[in-house]
Amino acid sequence: MANRYLDTLTAGLWKRIPPFRLVLGLCPSLAVTMSAENGLGMGLATAFVLILSNGAISSLRNVIPSKVRIASYIVIIATLVSIVEVLMKAFFFPLSQQLGIYIPLIVVNCIILGRAEGFAARNPPLLSMIDGFSVGTGYALSLLLIGSIREIFGAGAWFGIPVFGETFEPMTFLVSAPGAFVTIGAMLALQNLFSRWRGEKFIQG
Amino acid sequence: MDLFFLAISATFVNNILLAQYLGNCPFLGVSKKLETALGMAMAVVFVTVMAAIFTWVVFTYVLKPYNLEFLQTLSFILIIASLVQLVEIILKKQSRVLYNALGVYLPLITTNCAVMGVALLVAKKEYNFIEMLVFSSTSAVGYGLALILFAGIRERLIISAVPKSMQGTSIALITAGIMALAFIGFQGMA
Lengths: 205, 190
What we know:
The structure holds two protein chains of two kinds. By secondary structure, chain A is mainly alpha-helical. Chain A is built from nine helices and two strands. A two-stranded antiparallel ribbon of chain A has the order 1-2. In chain A, helix 1 packs parallel to helix 7 and helix 4 packs across helix 6. The longest helix of chain A is centred in the C-terminal third of the chain and has 31 residues, at 125-155. Chain A is globular and about 60 Å long. The two termini of chain A are 33 Å apart. By secondary structure, chain B is an all-alpha fold. Helix content of chain B is 74%, strand content 0%. In chain B, helix 3 runs parallel beside helix 7 (113-125), helix 4 (72-94) crosses helix 7 and helix 7 (113-125) packs antiparallel against helix 8 (129-158). Classes of the chains: A mainly alpha, B mainly alpha.
């Protein structure tokens, strides 16, 4: 029994890490990862929604009729996202201005609906919340990583602190829109290479 | 003239897919074949414009006068979800041809962030009715354009020799990056 909890807890960090293993939730991973700070903020906001929505949906899984389940999930998720939106405006105003419309767009992030449908609808609340925590943490870490790479090489700084000194010529390409696609594409390729080197079965393709 | 610039900017310069990164999941999902991309593009144009009109009315005449802007997320997603259902039912009854062409893509659109994104952008920029119509339709056309162009490239990708680790989503994303670079060229226009 304890094993199952541990498995679920660690699955989100490598076996199911979004957006690399589960190719879901790409829009925010592309859009808000101009800097490490934005990436981390977005990741944490999504993780928060994911933990609570998994918990809520799992507790209600025997009450919600299966025919209207998607609509019910969306209402639950949208309520939680509204809470996050208001909280961020109150406590992290500059960050919420920078993330802009991408905060309300957490509603349509496929990861959350995907985990609700794929995990929370079939498992007890505590286990579902652990799954939400693990996948959410994985997502936050991925966004932090993408954001760090783009900020360090694209702007020569990390969390706003210069790292290379004055002689470094930043590759502004990475901070702009095309750079986002190329960075994530390259990271996916590296991840595939690593998986094949470890002899894992090819999941993504 | 302002409307013309708004249209050009929404279609090319601030292309919703390649410059604002909205709607990437279906972008990668349905762009493997030109035919499906065409169906998806038409469905997106149709739903985006409808959703923009409905959310605009609700936002301007209900949410804003009563200071209920914090309900924006919840009400917009409900409007979009029920609209998609409604369109599906109406099409099924009224136009078999259109339903066969768009039917499969409609349920997918609920979670397409481009539709919700356009509605949110309209509310954020406080467009009037005409501006809203121009903005939503040209944004959606821009999305469709990028999707169809990309599907054309992707059909070619299948027959080219791609390194094993880069096959699939990886090379697709890098290709999208190069396309986004091309679209940056339009910035000189506006």
